[in-house]
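About this split. The held-out portion is used to measure sequence recovery: a designer receives only the structure tokens and must propose an amino acid at every position. Recovery is the fraction of positions where the proposal matches the reference. Here is one held-out target exactly as it appears in the evaluation file.
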């Protein structure tokens, strides 16, 4: 059996793709290891238009409910591990099952890079965060720490200077890298204290994070902060295909229509190289990918393309 459109992913980009493609009259199959995506890791979303404040998991659930208003086939519980194109597309799942399809949208998002420090997992979402722009406002007038000193970290520190009382920047090496204008701003800022050659060894607390033990220049110190943002970048979940062009950091290259270099194969959301990594963008890109993939499927159906 050859399916019409297979969408790989289980969150905003995938579910938006599924809704738009279904409404355009195409049979859609969604393949996901699990539903929710990154938004499951945040307490509150306050910048998604139409919802002044909504818990991340609730918004994720609403996406699924909305998708289920349509006749979408769901293949859950297994990651897709390969995409081939011998004739039609073939999507291989980790259990060995292969789904054939006329068109495929990759919406596998990204995973925040983790530190691997003790207690990190335990306090994730309870003081340890991976997105200062999303959760920074929760620490109005408080002291926080940012781990990293690259592009993501410098942007995070810059953003937090308007919110927090003080920002400790913890980084393993020396100096900052990122945009000069941002670096100049934060280097001079009296709220920012840069701890170079420093590394978090352990997070501690009770129900919520209370602080971190840090190896500061070879000396172990304790930093009492209710919030630590680990901003050492995101890893795109793009390993499942070698068919498409990717940036150095592994993001799938697409054009403004979410097309990869392979006809009928699209990528939407955080996994691609377009736009800021936010829900509004991934939902919008899902719309574009869904409509274009539907158009492509119809042309194959009508024999206009093979
Ligand atoms: C802590 C945190 C807080 C955030 N807060 C906000 C916020 O307040 N506002 C905002 O706009 N944005 C926020 N973001 C960013 C937002 O979550 C992302 O931009 C958005 O989730 C991207 O959606 P996506 O569908 O592209 O990918 P993801 O959310 O990463 O979802 C990818 C999905 O694909 C599945 N998947 C991955 N690989 C495979 C595979 N091989 N096979 C099958 N399934 C696979 C995953 O399980 C997941 O379901 C936050 C991010 C984080 C980490």
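Reference sequence for scoring:
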């Amino acid at each position: 059996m050859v399916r019409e459109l297979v969408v790989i992913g289980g969150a905003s980009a995938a579910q938006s793709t599924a809704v738009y493609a279904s409404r355009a009259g195409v049979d859609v199959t969604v393949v996901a290891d699990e539903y929710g995506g990154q938004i499951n890791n945040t307490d509150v979303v306050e910048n998604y238009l139409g919802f002044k404040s909504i818990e991340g998991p609730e918004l994720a659930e609403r996406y699924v409910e909305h998708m289920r208003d349509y006749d979408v086939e769901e293949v859950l519980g297994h990651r897709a591990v390969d995409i081939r194109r011998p004739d039609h597309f073939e999507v291989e799942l980790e259990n060995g099952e292969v789904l054939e399809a006329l068109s495929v949208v990759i919406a596998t998002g990204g995973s925040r890079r983790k530190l691997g420090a003790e207690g990190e997992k335990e306090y994730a979402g309870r003081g340890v965060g991976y997105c200062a722009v999303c959760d920074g406002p929760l620490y109005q007038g408080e002291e926080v720490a940012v781990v990293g000193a690259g592009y993501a970290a410098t942007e995070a520190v810059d953003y937090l200077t308007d919110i927090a009382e003080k920002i400790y920047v913890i980084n393993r090496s020396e100096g900052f890298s990122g945009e000069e204008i941002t670096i100049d701003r934060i280097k001079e800022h009296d709220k920012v204290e840069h701890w170079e050659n420093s590394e978090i060894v352990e997070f501690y607390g009770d129900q919520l994070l209370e602080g971190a033990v840090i190896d500061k220049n070879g000396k172990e110190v304790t930093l009492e902060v209710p919030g630590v943002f680990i901003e050492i970048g995101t890893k795109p979940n793009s390993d499942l295909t070698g068919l498409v062009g990717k940036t150095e950091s592994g993001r799938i290259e697409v054009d403004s229509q979410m097309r990869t270099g392979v006809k009928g194969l699209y990528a939407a959301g955080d996994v691609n190289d377009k736009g800021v990594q936010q829900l509004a963008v991934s939902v919008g890109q899902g719309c574009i990918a869904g409509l274009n993939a539907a158009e492509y499927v119809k042309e194959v159906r009508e024999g206009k393309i093979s």
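Annotator remark: The mean pLDDT is 95.
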